[in-house]
Write a structure and sequence with these properties.
Protein name: Clustered mitochondria protein homolog
Number of strands: 23
Number of helices: 46
Helix content: 40-55%
GO molecular function: mRNA binding
Largest sheet: 5 strands, mixed
Family: Belongs to the CLU family.
Structural class: alpha+beta
InterPro entries: CLU-central, CLU_dom, CLU_N, CLU_prot, GSKIP_dom_sf, TPR-like_helical_dom_sf
Distance between the termini: 42 Å
Subcellular location: Cytoplasm; Cytoplasmic granule
Oligomer: single chain
Length: 1307
């Protein structure tokens, strides 16, 4: 049984008060979520004035602790249940429906002293409910709704171990394989410890394909066979009977519905669900006789009835529930958003009443279980936003509601979009051609990503119409994050499915009854020809302008009058019939990217021109990312502070002495124009990420009203230099309408417009001259470690680089002097480039395919893309309707009319020609390959990796089997290998802001060395995350991983193991079983298993991680060195020396390649190899490696360093051992077989020493500090903080940061 309890400790009051005080005055703080919080507080009716009040309230709510109640259910013993006062009665219902002994009941009430409890009451509001109260479970009469819920629940219990829902990507199920490698739960370490100490004989040999240097990359091990999934058959068939619904005369006898069941023993029975329960009736398949059979076995629960008539059911159902309850809860809880698997084994299709019914009904009538019945999505989305947020409990409630509605909306929108493309939804404008159709299903509005009515003609037609929805979604995300009270956005989900892009939006009340022209009271419906504004909208948008860096500006309308706007012109304001102020079409929330928007008469800065910008792009909607804007403003802020500081110093110096003034004024202020050239300033900006900036603001604040005119002049100069919109304080904002075709500005603001244009050019230059080099630098020093396309894209986006710069980045890497050390990034980049180009082509390819030919078409495309077989032919499906062909025109087919078999003529050489030209056109990168084999050869790619990337991007699910890509005699894929096409869904991810702040404060504390406090804060964050997101979420995963690491460092190994196990399960479920993050989680778990003495499990986990990594990115990757060092060390520990050497020597090779032969990592690798050779008594090789290591230490850290000393000691020891061995050998040679020799001691390494080395390579450093050291460290940290706060002298600050870096341990 699992249970999410929310207990919030009292110390939440701390940070709460904290972060409303350091209100950032400038707008360049990188972590915008912090300003949002405070922004919204400032607007929220001044709660901040009574700073303490909300917290008083909080403390009261928070002191509630859990208590225990007794539960008595019919037919079971009374048992205890731990509950918390904030919970609802309904949550106890859920727990009982999940428990092994009560899971078959759904229709019951809970009674306390004979009073029925209200399902939606909170426990604390129930009179007389206290520690030790007895709650009785009382069976209630059924209704049709309750009977359906019961049958559905029983079906879910029967299918609880069946993975088919996860393969089919339904109901938020997803796969997890951890338990296969850990043989059940990891907590049972006690039983194993006893064996562990004698080092039980474990089979350590990995499968061939995992060994270093192996050339085969099988796919089948991706999903190892889970023995639990061999289904225990309880019933052959359970379906709704054909006699439903009951006729009127039977309704009056209480019949609700009829079921038809075939037991394992082949007994066919017909069952009546009545108000009193379930009983056998006398109907057969073809004869209706609803009278009770004799005996009728009337039972309140279907399980009780079936257990009486089928012994096999009774036996297997009990066994099944035992297994179900033993599984880790994280293996069965639903994820918040659907995760799709790109591979699946062949699964038998079995009869399933509920699935069949779900597919064909509108699913009305039982709301709890369904995200798909008709809900007023818009009302739900907006009402949750309006909930109170004055104190912590209120905010938690609000964020939980927002998150829940968003995840339900995303699920419903995805189902709707698929139904639309599959042709199952009637259009609201059926007379129009298919591309122009719009749909409404389940209160969601769907439109296709085509340029309808030449709306985007100026901007790039269909390409622009395809890009607009994602831009719009980014806008919705940004405004949603700022969260201004009174300003509403639409629920928006973008779904790519079968080659079409569908935008799903919630519907503004009343919008469908009016013409668009009448309802828009702010913004423009024709890209700026006619523009209107509205004071209320200006007031609301003004509040977003600082966090989003949007400049309030005036544009001319059709009458040449200036109109004030605080957004781009396309952003429309509509007041709904509900009186709310909505904004929509947020596709230009962020300013245009001039590198991809050639404008006549405008010159870009030289840094951009050297790289060949501006470049022609497919559409004119290319925007800069929000992350780039943040980084750029932050960078400007540092430049601003530097200039101000320099000039103030000059003034100060000139006051102090006339003579030195002359000397000082020679030092030029930083060049304003080539701001981007000061790339040095870029790096600290990237690292501080908004932490240093707010601290420095106070100083500037205290200056702006300075009486001293000279200082004021300093600020004005600095403001001017960095392009601030205000002259007295630092404030950078962008005008998103600059360079929009059709938008005109009045002549009075020419100066302002010029300034704005310059800002945009500088931002573009900043991207190419600062952000791209810093990305490459981060890849070089391994602070960024992309492993696949998704993590590479993430690394781009974190630094504000759009993926359309992929070609530029690849060229930059290719020309880098350290090209070899960037091999892995280059290879991942090329893979990403090729698969993205293939995806673009696949999109248009699919639009021309009939539904009946889908699997043939997809397999044909994959053959052309990946197979070495030169003449791939598509087998068209046999068209049995040839005769009726001519008169058969299907109207209601989605776009791409006509009967298309054009896709069948694609050949591999065509496709690769198209990929190469797409790479040139879109990414401006020249690929040198004409076929998949040339690409693999030239760029060192893996076909299996290419298959994974294209499947993930295009939503293809392939059969799990070994594909022969390299055969020149037959194609790799047949139509049977394509199992499904899934949607690729983009949506908003609402955040748990309070939890996130706790998490960040916890991280900060840990970095300062306060582990205990950090641990408490992170536990707190975990509670709050659980409260908002439920049990499964990416952020909870990060939380658990950090917690496990802290447990480990603080010596609590079992706790570390338990938390890390949860992190692995969650990562598998939420991100995917072979996501790079999951691979890392597996590695951490292996370390904690080893520390807990579970050696064989540790090895299995490491082998799994290595297999996944080979599949995802291949062997040649810096992270592989770490993995192999781990494997080698564990193998050394279990005395498998030869195997150990294979892995450690591979690690040494990779480390030398990616860290340079003189790096400390390489020295450590040499040492590890030497230790294994020592264990094998091959002292010469051991000496050779240790000497290498010693030389590196001596050159890098000097002779006096402890590492160098350790190495030199070890060298002496090895030399002695070698001499002793030689002496013994000579003795043997001299005296032959009767020599009396001392047996040499070969010691297996102690577990402790292996663990110590494991900690070192995994970067876990235990610092044994005395009390005195601790005091010094704290004092040092405080001194540094004060120094940063005073921030008087920037130079000093930088030096102190440098010192800090010198002192940090390198490994």
């Amino acid at each position: 049984m699992y249970y999410w309890k929310v207990t919030v400790n009292i110390h939440t009051a701390g940070p709460e008060v904290g972060y409303s005080t350091d209100r950032a005055v400038m707008n360049g703080d990188g972590e915008h979520s912090q300003t949002e919080q405070t922004e919204s507080k400032q607007d929220g009716g001044g709660d901040t004035e009574q700073g303490e009040d909300p917290n008083e309230q909080e403390v009261i709510v928070i002191q509630d602790t859990g208590f225990t109640v007794k539960i008595q259910a019919p037919g079971t013993d009374t048992f205890d249940l731990q509950v918390s006062p904030q919970e609802m009665v309904q949550e106890i219902h859920q727990v009982l429906m999940d428990r092994e002994d009560t899971c078959h009941r759904t229709c019951f009430s809970l009674q306390l002293d004979g009073n029925v409890l209200d399902n939606f009451a909170e426990l604390k509001s129930i009179e007389g409910l206290q520690e030790g109260s007895l709650l009785k479970v009382v069976e209630e009469p059924y209704t049709v709704r309750e009977a359906r819920i019961h049958v559905r629940h029983i079906r879910d219990l029967l299918k609880s171990l069946d993975p088919s829902d996860a393969y089919n990507g339904v109901d938020c199920n997803s796969l997890s394989f951890l338990s296969v490698f850990t043989d059940g739960d990891l907590g049972e370490s006690e039983k194993r410890k006893k064996k562990g100490s004698e080092l039980e004989q474990i089979d350590c040999t990995p499968p061939e394909h995992i060994l270093p240097g192996s050339k085969e990359h099988p796919l089948v091990p991706l999903q190892p066979q889970n023995k639990d999934w061999k289904p225990l058959q309880c019933l052959k068939v359970l379906t709704m009977s054909g006699w439903n619904p009951p006729p009127g005369n039977r309704k009056m006898h209480g019949d609700l519905m009829y079921l038809y069941i075939v037991t394992v023993e082949e007994r066919h029975v017909s069952i009546t669900a009545s108000t009193r329960g379930f009983y056998l009736n006398q109907s057969t398949t073809y004869m209706f006789n609803p009278k009770p059979a004799n005996p009728s076995f009337l039972s309140h629960s279907l399980v009780e009835l079936l257990s009486q008539i089928s012994p096999a059911f009774k036996r297997n159902f009990t066994a099944l529930q035992k297994k179900r309850v033993q599984r880790h809860p994280f293996e069965r809880i639903a994820t918040p958003f659907q995760v799709y698997s790109w591979t699946a084994p062949q699964v038998d299709h079995a009869m399933d009443c509920v699935r069949a019914e779900d597919a064909y009904t509108s699913r009305l009538g039982y709301e709890e279980h369904i995200p798909g019945q008709t809900r007023d999505w818009n009302e739900e989305l907006q009402t949750t936003r309006e909930l109170g947020r004055k104190n912590l409990p209120e905010r938690l409630l609000r964020e939980r509601a927002i998150f829940k509605v968003h995840s339900d909306f995303a699920a419903a929108a995805t189902r709707g979009a698929m139904a639309v493309i599959d042709g199952n939804v009637m259009a609201i404008n059926p007379g129009e051609e298919t591309r122009m159709q719009m749909f409404i299903w389940n209160n969601i509005f769907f439109s296709l990503g085509f340029d309808v009515r030449d709306h985007y003609r100026e901007l790039g037609g269909d390409s622009a119409a395809h890009a607009a929805p994602t831009n719009d979604l980014n806008g919705v995300r940004a405004y949603g994050a700022v969260d201004v009270e009174g300003l509403y956005t639409l629920g928006t989900v973008v779904v790519d499915y079968r080659g079409y892009r569908v935008t799903a939006q919630s519907i503004i009340p009343g919008i469908l009854e009016r013409e668009q022209e009448q309802s828009v009271i702010y913004g423009s419906i024709d890209f700026g020809k006619t523009v209107v504004s509205h004071p209320k909208y200006l007031e609301l948008l003004e509040k977003t302008s600082r966090p989003l860096k949007v400049h309030r500006h005036a544009v001319l309308n059709e009458k040449d009058e200036p109109v004030e706007l605080c957004s781009s012109v396309e952003c429309k304001g509509i007041i709904g019939n509900d009186g709310r102020h909505y904004i929509l079409d947020l596709l230009r929330t962020f300013p245009p990217d001039l590198n991809f928007l050639p404008v006549e008469g405008e010159e870009l800065p030289t840094e951009c021109q050297q790289l060949g910008f501006p470049r022609q792009h497919r559409h004119r909607l290319a925007c800069l990312r929000q992350e780039l804007i943040e980084a750029f403003v932050e960078h400007r802020y540092l430049v601003f502070m530097k200039m101000a500081a320099m000039q103030l110093m000059q003034q100060k110096a000139s006051k102090e002495s006339g003579t030195s003034a002359a000397a000082l004024s020679v030092a030029p202020p930083p060049q304003e124009d080539s701001v981007a050239a000061s790339a040095a300033a870029c790096d600290p900006a990237a690292n501080t990420n908004g932490s240093a900036a707010p601290v420095l603001v106070e100083k500037q604040e205290s200056q702006s009203p300075l009486e001293d005119p000279k200082s004021r002049e300093v600020v004005v100069n600095a403001c001017k230099a960095v392009g601030s919109i205000s002259n007295t304080s630092f404030d950078i904002r962008f005008n998103p309408d600059i360079f929009s075709p059709g938008v005109r500005f009045s002549d009075d603001n020419t100066e302002d417009i010029k300034k704005q244009k310059q800002l945009l050019k500088d931002a573009g230059a900043f991207l190419v001259s600062c952000q791209i080099p810093s990305l490459v630098k981060d890849c070089l020093d391994h602070t960024a470690l992309p492993m696949d396309g998704a993590t590479l894209t993430e690394a781009f986006h974190q630094r504000g680089i759009n993926v359309r710069y992929l070609g530029t980045v690849l060229e930059f890497i290719d020309k880098a002097p350290t090209r070899a050390q960037l091999d892995h990034v280059f290879r991942i980049g090329i893979t990403e480039l090729i698969t993205r180009c293939a995806k673009h082509i696949f999109k248009t390819y699919l639009q021309g395919v009939e539904l009946s030919a889908l699997s043939v078409a997809v397999s044909h495309f994959l053959n052309c893309f990946l197979s070495s077989f030169p003449d791939v032919v598509a087998h068209l499906p046999v068209d049995e309707l040839a005769s009726r062909r001519k008169n058969r025109r299907r109207r209601n087919r989605v776009a791409g009319g006509g009967d298309n078999t054009a896709w069948a003529s694609l050949t591999p050489s065509d496709l690769w020609r198209n990929i190469v030209s797409e790479a040139q056109e879109y990414y401006h990168f020249t690929l040198q390959c004409e076929s998949v084999d040339q690409a693999v050869e030239r760029y060192g790619l893996q076909k299996i990796t290419l298959l994974r990337e294209i499947s993930l991007k295009a939503g293809i699910q392939v059969l799990l089997k070994e594909y022969n890509f390299d055969s020149r005699h037959k194609p790799s894929f047949t139509e049977e290998d394509i199992l499904n096409i899934f949607p690729v869904v983009k949506h908003v991810n609402p955040k748990a802001s309070d939890a996130f702040h706790f998490f960040q404060s916890g991280q900060a504390k840990v970095q300062q060395g306060f582990l205990k406090e950090g641990c408490e804060l992170i536990n707190e964050a975990l509670n709050l995350f659980n409260n908002v997101y439920g049990a499964m979420h990416v952020e909870i995963c990060a939380c658990l991983r950090l917690l496990a690491r802290l447990n480990y460092i603080m010596g609590d190994h079992p706790e570390a193991l338990s938390n890390q196990q949860k992190a692995v399960l969650m990562s598998e479920r939420v991100l995917g079983i072979e996501h790079p993050n999951t691979i890392q989680e597996y590695m951490h778990l292996a370390l904690y298993c080893f520390a807990n003495g579970q050696l064989s499990t540790a090895l299995k986990l490491l082998y799994r991680a290595r297999y996944l990594m080979l599949l995802v990115c291949g062997e040649d990757h810096p992270e592989m060195a770490l993995l192999d060092s781990n494997i080698g060390l564990v193998l050394h520990g279990v005395m498998e020396y030869d195997l150990s050497l294979r892995f450690l020597e591979n690690a040494l090779l990779i480390n030398s390649k990616y860290h340079g032969p003189r790096s400390l990592k390489v020295a450590l690798s040499h040492h590890l190899v030497a230790r294994v050779y020592e264990s094998k008594a091959e002292f010469r090789s051991a000496l050779q490696h240790e000497k290498e290591g010693y030389t590196i230490y001596k050159n890098q850290v000097g002779e006096a360093h402890e590492k160098t000393k350790e190495s030199s000691e070890y060298l002496k020891y090895l030399t002695q051992q070698a001499v002793a061995l030689q002496r013994t050998m000579n003795e043997i040679y001299k005296n032959g077989s009767n020599a009396s020799i001392m047996p040499l001691k070969f010691t297996a390494p102690s577990m402790a020493s292996v663990l110590e080395q494991l900690n070192v390579i995994n970067g876990i450093i235990f610092i044994p500090l005395s009390q005195k050291d601790l005091e010094n460290l704290k004092a040092e940290v405080q001194r540094r903080q004060q120094l940063q706060e005073s921030g008087k002298n920037e130079e000093q600050l930088e030096n102190s940061q440098l010192e800090l870096e010198d002192k940090l341990p390198v490994d």
